[in-house]
Amino acid sequence: MTDHKTSKEQKYDRQLRLWGDHGQEALENAHVCLINATATGTEILKNLVLPGIGSFTIVDGHKVSGEDVGNNFFLTSSSIGKNRAQAATELLQELNGDVSGNFVEESPDKLLDNSPEFFHRFSLVIGVQLPESTYLRLGSVLWEAGVPFLICRTYGLIGYMRLIVKEHTVVESHPDNALEDLRLDQPFTELKHHVECYDLDNMEKKDHSHTPWIIVVAKYLEKWYSEHNSQLPKNYKEKEAFRQLIRAGILTNENGTPEDEENFEEAIKNVNTALNPTKVPSGTEEIFNAEQCENITSQSPSFWVIAHGVRDFVRNEGNGNLPVRGTIPDMIADSDKFIKLQNVYRDKAMKDAAVVSKHVEALLQSVGKPPESTSEQEIKLFCKNAAFLRVVRCRSLAEEYSVDTFNKDEITSCMDSTDSEMVLYLMLRSIDRFYQQHSRYPAAVMELPSHTRSQLFWEDQQLKKPSKSSRTSLYLSTTRSSIMPCHRLLLLFNFRAIVPSHRVSSFLYQSVGHKLALKFFFFLYLH
User: Fold this and answer.
1) What sign does the dihedral 207-219-215-265 (CA atoms) show?
2) Which keywords label this protein (predicted)?
């Protein structure tokens, strides 16, 4: 057992340093479904198989073609004619023996027709290069089941990804520049007792210069309180005066020259951090006030159960504050003093987490769930990150695609920016809509009647004329009645045998200008 654990730690050493044992456990418990083993799809799975995802299932009813072999590393010439899901699964499993791979030789549409609940079992469903109608059907099924849905679409060197999930809760959000939880403005009993053990005025020089800066700030706060009616330094002037108070405490030599005490310099530097008021962040307050936190049921996810337990702690034992985080920053100090101070915070954090655990246990029993359904490790992690909790909610795919509910104003506001990614998004959506109507992409080779080719050639020549007004009036009148039918414009692209992404960008940008190009795509997107 020990050898297996050691081997696993060696195998996944780098990623364990990033997301820890609990992150790896979550990865190993995941079951991901990939729809369509395209080059993009198999690359996504590769990056999940290598770090040790629990299992994956590929759903694909297509046979491997020569074109597939030419652009997909996980398909070989010997697999031509075989089912694409099976062929890709066999090679992907070779990357990591810890991962279980499965495949289904069906199209997603058939599964949706016969057994839509098939998709409920997965932790995540990834749909690659699917028709718009399939995205909408599958998106509806997954939305109701609460299963995250990741849409991926690529065209040459451009593409997009869209995550669709009702609610995604984040415990470890890793915010930038997170402030330390030191509680110097509201010290807990154990911290007060520890600070009282230090007497800076009667210390030897070695001990004085190796006292943790947190202790230094705490001791001089006591002096400040005695002179300022127990009020913290609040504005810049007061904080600067407090810094001078600390600076005056630096030892001097026999010549009256201040000694080089780096711990005091650290204390002066960290005054703002140390005096940061202890309070519950607004984001965490919003989570406490959410309906999901208020009304816990037997179906509530553990995130909301623990959030309710932490809220009970804040309103009772915590006296309005979150559980102590239990960590302190690295600092100049001798090992003995640093470890003792670290243990003060760590022990308090463990005590607070134990109280939260009792609240959670009582809550679980009240809704008929066993106490062990939420682990002690999960509660400790939640308490440690209680100040950084996040809840992300997305719109459904149906809302995004519907004319009645899509974000028209937001899309319109992006049209004036030449750097906006909305331009590419509308282009890609337009191509999807074309495929939905014609069962092929604009660049697909097809034979056109001679009179159609002649007409399109003439129209293309008109675009080369210098008069910008004639070009815009031909294709992009602001009135619906005079705009050129979308399929004819896209057929023109096909006639010239140009890849859509290049043809769309160069033709529309150069011929009719940025804003008018957007008008065309906006029209196609809505119709």
Assistant:
1) negative
2) Ubl conjugation pathway
Instruction: Return the C-alpha torsion angle 492, 496, 501, 505, nearest 10.
Output: -70
Token digits of residue 215? 């202790």
Can you list the alpha helix ranges (DSSP code H) found in 12-65? 13-28, 39-49
Residue 515 neighbours by CB under 8 Å, 6+ apart: 415, 416
DSSP notation for 447-470: ---HHHHHHHHHHHHHHTSS-HHH
Nearest CA to 224 out of 234, 209, 212, 213 is that of 234
**What does each C-alpha distance from 238 to 274, 452, 521 come to in angstroms?**
14, 81, 59
Among 30, 36, 125, 104, CA closest to 75: 36
Q: How many CA within 13 A on the CB side of residue 331? A: 29
Which amino acid appears at position 439 of this protein?
A: S
Question: How many helices and strands (H and E) does the chain possess?
Answer: 26, 8
- Residue 168 phi/psi, 5° resolution? -125, 115
Q: How distant is the alpha carbon of residue 273 from its chain centre? A: 27
Exposed (0-12), middle (13-18) or buried (19+): which is 345, by Cβ within 10 Å? buried
Instruction: Identify the burial level of 307 via C-beta atoms within 10 angstroms of its C-beta, where 0-12 means exposed, 13-18 middle and 19 or more buried.
Output: buried
Burial of 202 (0-12, 13-18, 19+ CB in 10 A): exposed
pLDDT per residue, tens digit, the chain (527 aa), is 455 566 788 888 889 888 888 899 999 999 999 999 999 999 999 999 999 999 999 999 999 999 899 899 999 999 999 999 999 999 999 999 999 999 999 999 999 999 999 999 999 999 999 999 999 999 999 999 999 999 998 888 888 899 999 999 999 998 988 899 999 999 999 999 999 999 999 999 999 999 999 999 999 999 999 999 989 999 999 999 999 999 999 998 888 888 899 999 999 999 998 999 999 999 999 999 999 999 999 999 999 999 999 999 999 999 999 999 999 999 999 999 999 999 999 999 999 999 999 999 999 999 999 988 999 999 999 999 999 999 999 999 999 888 888 888 888 888 777 778 888 888 888 888 888 888 887 766 555 556 655 665 565 566 556 544 433 333 333 333 333 334 444 433 333 333 334 344 444 444 334 444 455 454 444 44
Q: Residue 324, by phi and psi: left (phi above 0), alpha (psi -120 to 50) or beta? A: beta
CA separation for the pair 224, 241 (Å, rounded): 10
